[in-house]
User: What shape does this take?
Amino acid sequence: MCINNEKLTFCTCSEKEVKASDNFDSEIYYTWLLTSYIGYKESRIRGKILMPSKDLGKGLTLDRILEILNSDLSYFDFDYHPKELDCFRIKNNLKYPFHQYFSVIYKNNLWQQGSNPAFVSLTKTIAQGRISREVTESKKTRNWLVSQEKLSIIQLFDKLLSEKDVTEQWQFITALANRFPKESFQKAINLCNANSKTEKIYGFRLMSQLYESEYNLKQIKSFLFKRVESENDKEIIETLIFSLTSNLSLLKDDEIKSLLSLKERGDNFKVVLMDELINYNHKLVIDFFVELCRDTNLGVKQKAIMNLSYEDDLDTPKVRKVLWENVENQNKKVRQYSIYGLALRKDNNIKSILEKELKYIDNDSSLILEAIEELGNKRMKPLLESKLEQLNNNKYLSKLLIDTIENI
Assistant: This one.
């Protein structure tokens, strides 16, 4: 990315070496990647996906990039015209937990937040580049990549406890866990037992980082599980859940049950558990999602069905049954996610439901057309062509129908 005052240009001149100066932070840089969607691919790979950010710092915000891409101006240094499902991602070069990124996707003639499904999307790189940002602060501004090697454990803890910014806190937490694991473990216990909620959160975050690095793994896991049972604060429990699910292969069945029992504490915990466990193909987890697909809270139910629908590796008779229960649900989103999930699993019995949905298709029915593509039943082409002829100057829906006809 080339920068001229406030204008950004996504350029491919990134191979050029960038020299550090008094007002350039050479350790923090960004890269961008532009890809096109080729199609679906089979994959057994699964893992936790880091949630995207909306602000990477140095003026690189999601809103700003969307404003740029959706403007009439060209911000690339090569000839580029976006196509449906093109994806544009910007990320920094830092490791977890400071690694940050966001992705935008071109859908319905508009760039918007999102990306193609991870692990199962076959993509092709269009272009990419390295981004170096000039900053207005002087070189004396804090750069943890350098300073962490110079600070003592006491200084690192002092900075951690006085820091208000969460990203900066994680930087000091990681420095402590990496450089002083033994001493930090005892200090983390002391913080977790403090009366102050703020200090407790610092302690559990530090314990989380030690667990992530697999230091004293057995003892820390036991400690975290005991605190899951005794803590009541939502923010602390979310930190504990995130920590314990960072390596799902380490969890035993009774430990998974213990985590899933947190659903009894309310809808917020159901959502947190879903976010952390969706990629885990385990009977107890699948049963948990199936149960939430029948939840009385519509938001919880919709999220559970959406998660199950997109994760076709989670395919059991129970999963298909609960999806079939909702193929005619009055809530449009619940219904469409259920239909899509069955089509993705190549359940040909969904064809008659898709034909019914096709009669009433509108601009908010793109998921139904995606379901038709996933099912891949060529006998539906005449129905799609007939529906296309019935449209009156609806360019958006016409394009979706044409794309579907071409792709099945």
Summary: The chain has 18 helices and seven strands.
